[in-house]
Specification:
Layout lengths: L50 E5 L4 H12 L3 E6 L3 H13 L4 E5 L5 H15 L4 E4 L15 H22 L8 E5 L3 H4 L5 H23 L5 E7 L13 H6 L12 H12 L10 E4 L8
Helix pairs in contact: 1-2, 1-8, 3-4, 4-6
Length: 295
């Protein structure tokens, strides 16, 4: 079961020491389970009739976005690698909100997967209004020389090139009022001594967000492009990336003194996808526990 803390309760400061053997990790193996959506969130039809395509939508932040968007009236298509149980759980949660959920299993590093995902989403729902580029990987290394060609290529291929190609495939089907929202990272702004390639790929996402926004505004297409930069959020990527001791300390050094929950990040995506953000493009919302990055 996914935890659904009431917002008046205290969130856990950190998690017990734990690891997972393979990225992007499985949410069902995490303890405690991440909070996916706040119980006190009452849907107000902000996304009624819209369709959102979410990469990495099976767990973590992606799952929270899917469920929150569904509560606001959107149908959902999620792209995931191989975590079938997590994907099925997300589908169930979306359907519990009265919306449809299309599962798209495959490797986003494959250009054909991007093409097929868009085709299947259009075939199922008829249109796409929101693209959430959220899938990502990270491989900590304490020394630059330890980042070999294979790792560097994998990091950029998954985090940036796949995002670029998926956006190319979706863009021709977006119209005025639609939006693209990318997941960048706090590491894009202040770096990370053990995630050099990851932070660099997230920096590329930040500048891509700004550049594409400017490009589309110049073309007067009415399509907005923004991003969210999470800090330390409790998702499957954390126990599948770091050693057990690092996981046990995760988030404790933020100004708020704790890790964040996916439920605390997803509302930023909802705001950017909604008409309330109609005058916002090329911007990044920082959800990081209070760290000021001036970006």
């Amino acid at each position: 079961m996914d935890n659904n803390h009431d917002s008046k309760n205290h969130y856990p400061t950190s998690a017990p020491a734990q690891t997972q053997a393979q990225q992007p990790g499985e949410q069902g193996q995490m303890h405690p389970q991440p909070e996916i959506i706040k119980k006190n969130h009452q849907g107000s039809h902000q996304l009624q009739g819209k369709v959102a395509l979410i990469s990495g939508g099976d767990s973590g932040i992606g799952r929270s976005i899917a469920v929150l968007f569904a509560r606001e009236g959107a149908d959902i298509a999620i792209i995931y690698l191989q975590e079938q149980q997590d994907a099925e759980r997300t589908k169930q949660l979306v359907e519990n909100e009265g919306q449809q959920c299309l599962l798209l299993q495959g490797d986003i590093n494959d250009l054909a997967m991007a093409e097929q995902s868009v085709e299947q989403t259009l075939k199922t729902f008829g249109h796409i209004n929101i693209l959430i580029n959220n899938a990502g990987v990270q491989y900590p290394q304490s020394d630059l020389s330890a980042i070999n060609h294979s790792q560097l290529e994998k990091t950029f291929q998954t985090n940036f090139f796949a995002l670029f190609y998926l956006t190319q495939q979706v863009l021709p089907h977006l119209h005025e009022g639609d939006s693209i929202i990318n997941t960048t990272s706090i590491t894009s702004y202040r770096g990370h001594d053990e995630l050099i390639d990851y932070a660099s790929s997230k920096g590329a996402i930040t500048t891509f967000t700004r550049s594409l926004s400017t490009n589309l505004l110049k073309q007067k297409k009415g399509i907005r492009v923004n991003a969210v930069a999470p800090g330390p959020i409790w998702t499957p990527l954390i126990p599948s990336s770091f050693d057990a001791q690092t996981v046990a300390e995760f988030g404790k050094h933020t100004p708020m003194g704790r890790m964040g929950q996916p439920s605390e990040v997803a509302p930023a995506y909802l705001f950017l996808a909604s008409d309330d953000a109609s005058y916002i493009s090329g911007q990044v919302i920082h959800v990081n526990g209070g760290e000021i990055v001036n970006g």
